[in-house]
Structures are given as structure tokens and as C-alpha cells.
Amino acid sequence: MNEIRAEESIRKKFHKQLFSPFAKACKIYRLIQEGDHIAVCISGGKDSMLMAKLFQEIRRHRQCNFELTFLVMDPGYNIENRELIESNAKALGIPITIFASDIFDAVDTIESNPCYLCARMRRGYLYSNAKALGCNKIALGHHYDDVIETILMGMLYGGQMQTMMPKLHSTNFEGMELIRPLYLVRESDICAWRDYNDLHFLQCACHFTDTCTTCHEDGTNPSKRLETKKLIAELKKSNPFIESNIFKSVENVNLDTLIAYKKKGERHHFLDEY
Predict the structure, then answer these.
(1) CA distances for 198 relative to 1, 8, 67, 118, 191, angstroms
(2) 53 and 64 in contact (C-beta within 8 Å)?
(3) Are residues 203 and 45 in contact, defined by beta-carbon separation less than 8 angstroms?
(4) Contact indicator for 166, 25 with CB cutoff of 8 Å
(5) Which residues pair with 40 in a beta bridge?
(6) Of 1, 15, 19, 151, which has the fewest CB atoms closer than 10 Å, so is most exposed?
(7) Which residue in 238, 213, 239 sits closest to 226, CA to CA?
């Protein structure tokens, strides 16, 4: 049975690669606290499905008391994609709560940056439905590779230095937080777990691209993300530490050597204190 094999592989074969970095991120970034009610947001892809199983596993350890709701938003999937999510959830023992939205229809007529609008709308729907269910946090399935790609993309295509944060306070839904517990988990290890268990998950199901391998909440152009992924892989050939160096770069920021930076929306320039 998929559920038993998948859980056993998390506890044994992939414990070091998957559960350990998941638990570490939860601990060092303080993602789970006593009394939390977390909406584990499941898109149907490999990342969010694994995240759901890791949440079940960490709750089994009973180090703190928290509730889980496994939340699936249907933005307008076709019947086959909807059934794939439901059958995978059932096979893996994930008790999902599904709600429908009309996001795909809403963004279908948008020509300029539909991915960004889709991502914004998705997050809004997830926050509002999670809050209505009594949750105080939503968990998204972004992993380590998403983080380093976002850092590099910001520099190369956005002309800015920023990162994908492990947790955020919602600006529009008071008392709600967004957490990313796969923050330290490598995508290759997620793929290895999926393939070891012979699991087949939903790829990006939107109308706009057949090449997108996952839906990114930052709304980035999938081709630019793929381009950045390939660049990192190429750089890694001559420098095996390239990925960890990109990740650490936003933890070792020296403000004394920056021309300018923003804090809480306010711009600071080095000449202000020169």
C-alpha cells in the first residue's frame, strides 16, 4: 500500500534527506508553536504532498500540540487533475478538505503576467479559507532550490537583493502567518522519494504553459526560473559549494558595504550616514 511504504521510506530510507531538514527548519525558524492550527496547502504536486506526509510524521512525535487541516484549493482543474489529487491523497492517507474557486477563469483573459495574478489570488483564497476553518497559519511547499533560485533571479532579472522568507506575517489577514517548512529540503531528494515510491503527482495544470514543473507563489516566469536552475547547475560543475553559498549570502549581509537598502519600506542610503 502506498501510504505504508511512503511513511516507512520517510522514517528510514529518506529520514536524513527529508525529515531531518524539515524538522530542523521548523525548529530554527520557529515555524510550529504550541496550539497552532496549520492549513497545509496542497496543490497536488510532489512538494506539497510530501510536506503533508512530513507534517503527519512530526505530529506523531508529539513534541508540541498543534492541529492540521490539509487544504486543497481547486482553481478550476479539469476532471482528470482533480481526480489525481483525490486519489493520491487517499492512497497516502491524507484527509484533504477541498474548496473550489474560479481563479483559472479569472486569469484566462489576462495577457500581462497572468502567473503573478494567479499566485496572488491563490494565496488570498488560501488565507481566507484557512482563517474561516480556524487556522492561524498556512504552510506552502517551497523548498531549498526555490529559495536559491529566487535569490539569484532577483539579482539577475529584478535588480534587487532579496530572498524567499521561511515565514511571513500576512499583511491582509490579521493574525495569519505563512510558513515554508521545506525550506531546507532539496528538490532532488523530494524527487528521489517520489520515484522510490512510484508516485505520480500533478504537474502545473494551468492554461498558460506546458513546460512549468511547479506553480510558484511568487508568480515568476517559469522559463526564467528554469533558466536560473540551469545556470546554478552549470556553476556547480566548477564550484560544488555554489548552492550553499547562494543560500548563505542572504544570512551574511554586510550593511556597511551596501549602497542602499530598504527596511519596512523606507529606503536608506549610505550617504545618509557618511
Answers:
(1) 11, 14, 29, 30, 10
(2) no
(3) yes
(4) yes
(5) 70, 139
(6) 1
(7) 213
Determine how many CB atoms are found less than 10 A away from the CB of residue 65: 10
Does the 2-219 domain belong in CATH 3.10.100.10?
no
Question: SS3 of 258, please?
Answer: coil
CA distances for 18 relative to 140, 144, 225, angstroms: 16, 12, 23
pLDDT in tens, 63-96: 899 999 999 998 888 889 899 999 999 999 999 9
pTM attached to this predicted model: 0.89
d(CA 162, CA 213): 23
What pLDDT digit, counting tens, does each position of 90-131 carry? 999 999 999 988 777 777 777 666 677 777 888 888 999 999
The phi-psi region of residue 134 (left if phi > 0; otherwise alpha if psi is between -120 and 50; otherwise beta) is left
- Specify the 3-state DSSP secondary structure of 172: coil
